[in-house]
Each structure stands twice: as C-alpha cells, then as structure tokens.
Amino acid sequence: MIVKALHPNIEGNPRSNLTTKAVSGQADLIIQNASDFAVDDHLVIGNPAEELTEIKKIASISGKTITLSANLVNTHPENTRITFIKYDQVKFYKATSVNGTYNLVANKSIAIDEPHTLYDDSTALSTDYFKIKYFNSDSSDLSVYSDPIGASGFPRYSLKRIQDAVYAKTGDKKESYYTREEITDWVNEIKDDMVNQIIDSNEKYYNTYENLTVDSEGEASLGANFRKFQKMFVLYDGVNGVRARKFEFEEINDFSQTFSQEYPGYYFRQYKVGCRPKGTAGTTIIQVHFEDQPDDLENDMDEIPKPLRFYMHVVMDGLMAKAMEKAGKDGRSDRFYKKYQIGVQNMLEEINNLVLDENRGVRDEEEDVEML
Questions:
Q1: Torsion angle of the four alpha carbons 154, 157, 158, 160, in this order, in degrees rounded to the nearest 10
Q2: Which of 12, 71, 154, 217 could form a disulfide with 158 if both were Cys (CB 3.0 to 4.6 A apart)?
Q3: Longest Cα–Cα distance in the chain
Q4: Backbone φ and ψ of 65, nearest 5°
Q5: What is the rounded distance in angstroms from the CA atom of residue 51 to the CA atom of residue 332?
Q6: Concatenated DSSP letters of 241-261
Q7: Are residues 279 and 171 in contact, defined by beta-carbon separation less than 8 angstroms?
Q8: CB neighbours of residue 27 within 10 Å
Q9: Can you say whether the dihedral through the CA atoms of 269, 275, 278, 279 is positive or negative?
Q10: Residue 277: is the preceding peptide bond cis (ω within 30°)?
Q11: What is the pLDDT of residues 295-305, one digit of tens each?
C-alpha cells in the first residue's frame, strides 16, 4: 500500500521573491526582503507540487542575501517565490486498528516537488491504519497526529476523495488554483443545502432526540446540531414522560398560573428550552425530538451523510458550479448549477417515493388487521 501525506499548509507564511536568478550548485539566494526569516529556518524555493521546487535550510543571512546550509539542486529564475515552512520531514505511523497504538514505521523528507510525500508499505493489511506527523529535523518540533487513514483507502464520498475529484475535473492536478480549504467550504455549503431541502420535504430523515437535564430554572441548553423541533416530552424524576404543549415565554411570568406535571408545557428562550412546572434540578429531563443537522466535513476521512452519498454526481455538479464561478466562467457555472438543481429535485422525488411506498405498506397492513 502507498500512503500519501499532504504537504504542510504554507499559505500565509512569511515569504519573499528572488531578485536574481539562483543557479544549481550555488548556496546563496538574493531576495527582496529577508527580515522575516531567521537562521535554521527551512524555505520552500518555488511552489509546492511543481517540478524543481525544493526545501533548503538557512545557514546565515546578510542583508538581502540568504546563504543555505546546502547547495541548490535546481536552477530557479528571478521572481521565484521563497516561503517559510515549519517542517521538512514527515513521520509515518501504523496501527492494527483505528483506535490502536500507532508505531513509527518511516521518516521521509517532504517531497515538495510532488503533490504528496509517499510511503510504500508492502506489509500493510486491509485492516491497518496510518497516521502522520510533520517533523522539523533541526528543532525537533513535531506536529500533532493527522486523522487516521485506512489501508483500504478513502471511500469516494469522503472529503479527501471529493477534493481529489474536483482537482481532476477542473484540471488543477497540481492544486495551484483551488485550495483544499475552499473546496471543503463548498462541500459543506452544498451538504447543508441538500440536507435542508431533504428535511423541508420529508421529516423522516435526520430526526433524532436528546435528553436534556434541567437546571434550577427548569431550563437546558439545546445542542449545537439542533435545527427544528418536532415534539417534546418532560420526564419528572426521569420517569413517566408526558408530552408537553408549547407556550410563549411570557406566559411564565403569569404568577397566578398553576402548572401541573400531568399537563407540562415547554418554551424556547435564547437557544434554551425550559419547562413548567420546573421539576427538580438534575433529575427532571426534557426529551427533545428534533431535526438533526449533520456535522460539517473537516478531516480527510469525514464522509458525506446518507442519502447524499448515493447522489455524488449531484454533489459534484454543485461543486463544479462553484469552481467555474471562481474561475470566472459564468456560463459553465450556470449550466452546472442548473444540473445541480435538477439533480436535487430528482433526489427528493426518489426519496419521497420511497417513503410513500413504505407508508402505503403500513396502511395496508393496518387495513388487513381491521378486516380480520
């Protein structure tokens, strides 16, 4: 198995440009401004994932001249970008399970002239997992672990594979025009749009419940994924849940009103839910049934939620609309967006037809029981 490690992100790092061509075999770089660099810093000379780009360490600085600790391997023209990079190596770790103990199996110099730094493990099993850490060979600084990478690879609906697909479809194979961060933002925008449309058309999907313990005011904070309430139960002393009716918060201020545990009520206030009667703090539970917004994708292994993963062609049309919009190709962006809209509507029809079939089956069963 070949494990691919992405390069550390250097966007926003201190940088400058060569003012004079730097020839292969020399150790000096003459740049526009060296004030942001220091001895023992590592520099990326060129752009990541481009041929001839290399990483070198600073041995000394004099004015605008940087002397490297080793001679250049390649020749770099005037105006070549010079960028600080915190790490110059990648450490690869392996475990026999996703939550197992990760042991160091390889230490590789960052292959900055390639899209990834590769590690080939011929002994890997399909059940193995890998993690990486970035390493500074001079200061011994070590990054935190990456997300786990399964030896079986990333599924096509994982964030990493979706990003790779965008690069392939746009021809940006060197990842020089679109950043993975902006593609991630697009993925989450499209995920939210598709999920919201599914929820609006059918409450069967993304519904869940959460038990919230009330405080002395009879209130509890709603979870971060709460989207839209469906129903509410109040469990006094944690038992005998009674469905609650909704009333406005102002009704709580009616001190002449008597509340009964047999007919509890609930209200919303500042992203909190409260109940009356208040019950006993720490033992009274409000069971909130609500529509759950799936979490954003952030890490390589994160996956698009069901049922979106069965409609990856629709997701890709939405992503291509955004990519073409950034590229200034408005006509192509509009065409992809129209395909995306049609794809979402087809998805909703298929989902709702499934639900209608299921409901019809339930009604038929009930009718058969009545006939018996």
A1: 80
A2: 154
A3: 96
A4: -105, 125
A5: 31
A6: EEEPEE--GGGGG-TT----T
A7: no
A8: 15
A9: negative
A10: yes
A11: 888 878 788 99
3-state secondary structure of 349: helix
Surface-to-core class of residue 275, CB atoms within 10 Å of its CB (0-12 exposed, 13-18 middle, 19+ buried): buried
| Tokens standing for residue 178 | 């679109």
The tokens of 231 are what? 């129903």
Whole-structure pTM value = 0.53
Positive/negative CA dihedral, 130, 153, 186, 224: negative
pLDDT digits (tens, 9 = 90+) for 69-125: 999 999 999 999 999 999 999 999 999 998 899 999 999 999 999 988 999 998 888
For 168, residues 6+ apart whose C-beta sits below 8 A from its C-beta are: none
End-to-end CA distance of the chain: 61
Sign of CA dihedral 43, 45, 50, 52: negative
Tokens of 26: 């020399």
Give the separation between CA 197 and CA 341, rounded to whole angstroms. Answer: 11
Helices marked H in the chain — which ranges?
159-170, 180-201, 312-326, 330-371
